[in-house]
Task: inverse folding
């Protein structure tokens, strides 16, 4: 079977880009990735994006971005899987390369969220929930995650303080990332003193509304050689998995098991021939602190109910056994929803090339996990240093 | 703002939303809202069942920054409620002091106004849950 390697990675800083539109951000990230690989054309483009229609009244992103990036008459489409759109787009790009249909593929994730009023942004994000049975009742995405958070704390006896540790860790790492939205460390008190958005979930338990774009170039090792891309730039996409769960939270078999992540991770581990123990760093989807805890459990890093214990025991820091969110995670880097999975991919590439601002020493294998909905659509990707 | 809720779209679900009509498959798996395929066993032999509307609070939150269209109601409590027939339903709690909400609190269904649309005048009704009226 063919192998897929990432040979170029690029991104824009995450933030409130008042002066830049969706197309500006996407083109910038895309050209950064192409320049990184040293190429000026690609066979196709996959765009990870969640809600450009409501946010900026723009769909047909494949045509828009390929056109404005000067890529010619290539095939280009948008891939949507709620907040996991970026991770899913990377997988579609890899699939195209592995199938042999395309040799050099570009994937760009982009989201422009700050052009909308905050309450409209809240509404658009809730489009990832079940419209008739969740949003109908006034559920925001934060509220749905708050329901999970309260139940998690009650079931396992955790406190708001325990979960705050995930935010503290993310900010501590994000402080060193020049592309992060929040480049300052915070204390547990900062999280606890922030206002409730949906009790017990506070402002600092949640990732921010923001803009950003990230991109990667995927090809085969043979083609990479032919294109003259230095081997030091290569990072292998060793495994991938994707799965869904019930779209509404109320229909979930177990509120506290990210079944989709579990299934996706099993597939990704099997394809890569690794287990959770072999992974040197984890970029999990910490859109909300409780989701970081549940993710660690679903990925097999922690036992069920013990995800937050890992944070409490200091095991998630850069120099600990299970480093997570090495460039700030969604919490500090920022979470431009449809772009996040591609940001995670770019960050994994930097770690495996040894170029990350908070480098995990001798990182060989990294994992990214990207959650859409309240765990309803999840991608897991495993990357390996070549 | 866009008009996300047209009359026909709302009308399609009025039985579930007014009368809590769920589904029960040939193997007695009960679910809500009704589906044509049982989510537990995959049976397509599913009949309608009217749920009692009595249940217990599993988890709850206070929505302080609601999606647009719900600003008027904020803050409001939203909960996951396990009905006595088994299914879990997401709904707003009403007629309750937020301080009184607790795990396992008994609640019963009540039909209330969910939302008004200023532009086209549709008023949406549906289920909410409240502590049982003695
Ligand atoms: Zn059944």
Result:
């Amino acid at each position: 079977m063919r192998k897929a390697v990432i040979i170029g990675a690029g991104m824009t800083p995450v933030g409130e880009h008042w002066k830049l539109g969706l197309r500006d951000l996407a083109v910038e990230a895309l050209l950064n990735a192409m320049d990184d690989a040293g190429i000026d054309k690609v066979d196709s483009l996959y765009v990870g994006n969640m809600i450009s229609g409501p946010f900026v009244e723009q769909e047909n992103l494949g045509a828009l971005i390929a056109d404005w990036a000067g890529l010619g008459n290539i095939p280009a489409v948008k891939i949507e899987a709620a907040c996991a759109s970026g991770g899913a787009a990377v997988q579609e790009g890899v699939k195209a390369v592995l199938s042999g249909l395309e040799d050099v593929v570009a994937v760009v994730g982009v989201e422009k969220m700050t052009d909308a009023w905050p309450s409209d942004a809240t509404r658009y994000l809730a489009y990832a929930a079940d419209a008739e049975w969740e949003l109908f009742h006034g559920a925001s995405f934060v509220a749905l995650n708050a329901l999970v958070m309260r139940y998690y704390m009650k079931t396992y006896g955790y406190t708001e303080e325990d979960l705050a540790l995930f935010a503290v860790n993310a900010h501590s790492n994000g402080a060193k990332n020049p592309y992060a939205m929040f480049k300052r460390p915070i204390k547990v008190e900062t999280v606890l003193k922030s206002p409730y958005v949906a009790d017990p979930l506070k402002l600092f338990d949640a990732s921010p509304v923001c803009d950003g774009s990230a991109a990667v170039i995927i090809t085969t090792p043979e083609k990479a050689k032919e294109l003259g891309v230095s081997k030091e730039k290569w990072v292998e996409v060793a495994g991938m998995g994707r799965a869904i769960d019930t779209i509404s939270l109320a229909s979930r078999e177990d509120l506290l098991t990210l079944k989709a992540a579990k299934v996706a991770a099993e597939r990704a581990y099997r394809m890569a021939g690794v287990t959770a123990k072999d992974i040197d760093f984890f970029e999990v989807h910490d859109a909300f602190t409780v989701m970081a805890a549940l993710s660690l459990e679903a990925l097999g890093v922690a036992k069920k109910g013990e995800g937050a214990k890992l944070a409490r025991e200091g095991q998630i820091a850069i120099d600990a056994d299970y480093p997570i969110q090495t460039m700030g995670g969604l919490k500090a880097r920022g979470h431009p929803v449809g772009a996040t999975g591609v940001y995670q991919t770019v960050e994994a590439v930097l770690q495996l090339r040894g170029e990350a601002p908070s480098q995990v020493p001798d990182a060989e294998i990294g994992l990214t996990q990207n959650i859409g909905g309240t765990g309803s659509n999840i991608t897991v990707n495993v990357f390996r240093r070549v | 703002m866009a008009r996300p809720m047209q009359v026909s779209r709302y009308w399609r679900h009025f039985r579930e939303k007014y009368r809590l009509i769920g589904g029960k498959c040939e193997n007695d798996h009960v679910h809500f809202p009704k589906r044509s395929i049982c989510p537990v066993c995959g049976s397509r032999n599913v009949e309608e069942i009217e749920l009692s509307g009595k249940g217990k609070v599993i988890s709850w939150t206070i929505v302080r920054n609601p999606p647009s269209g719900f600003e008027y109601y904020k803050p409001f409590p939203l909960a996951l409620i396990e009905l006595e027939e088994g299914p879990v339903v997401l709904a707003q709690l009403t007629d309750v002091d937020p301080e009184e909400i607790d795990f396992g609190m008994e609640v019963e269904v009540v039909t209330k106004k969910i939302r008004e649309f200023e532009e086209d005048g549709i008023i949406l009704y549906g289920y909410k849950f409240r502590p049982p009226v003695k």
The radius of gyration of chain A is 19 Å. The longest strand of chain A covers residues 235-244. The mean pLDDT of chain A is 98.
